[in-house]
Amino acid sequence: MKHIYLPNMRASRGFTLMELMITMVIIGILAAIAVPMYSAYVTRSKIPEATSALAGMRIRLEQYYQDNRNYGSTAAACGLAVPSGSNFTYTCVWRGTDQTYLITANGVGSMNGFTYTIDEGGNRATSAVPAGWGTAPISCWVSKKGGEC
């Protein structure tokens, strides 16, 4: 039986410092790109809470108007209870008479800085947005950074 002799090779005992540093740089670059994109995605996912609540409230107010020929009994509140939500607070007030109204959704918590409105004519507007989301007022409901509707 013949013995095969291999050249004296060092046994690999782990990663070199250079390999670890390169891995850390790659992870850092990926995190620098992914974290802001994820944050913007989470913020965008919370916006429909406000826009759907405003649209639903407008429909309910129009039904109320069909029955009562006005939008409410006091200037401080419309004829219906305002919706509640975890990311927005809602208000509904007259704009001069009981024949006009303005429903507003103001962001709270992580959505602070967003303000959406709708009136009796169905005019949608974004009256406030955080930095990077456009320049308010905008005559639509902003749903993406840069003021996109």
Automatic annotation (TrEMBL):
Membrane-crossing residue ranges in chain numbering: 20-41
A Pfam family that the UniProt record links to this protein: N_methyl
Subcellular location: Membrane
Protein's membrane topology: Single-pass membrane protein
Tagged with keyword Membrane: yes
UniProt KW keywords: Membrane, Methylation, Transmembrane, Transmembrane helix
InterPro entries: Bac_GSPG_pilin, N_methyl_site, PilE-like, Pilin-like
Keyword Thylakoid belongs to the record: no
UniProt cross-references to NCBIfam families, sorted A to Z: IV_pilin_GFxxxE
Protein's name in the database: Type IV pilin protein
Species whose genome carries this gene: Herminiimonas glaciei
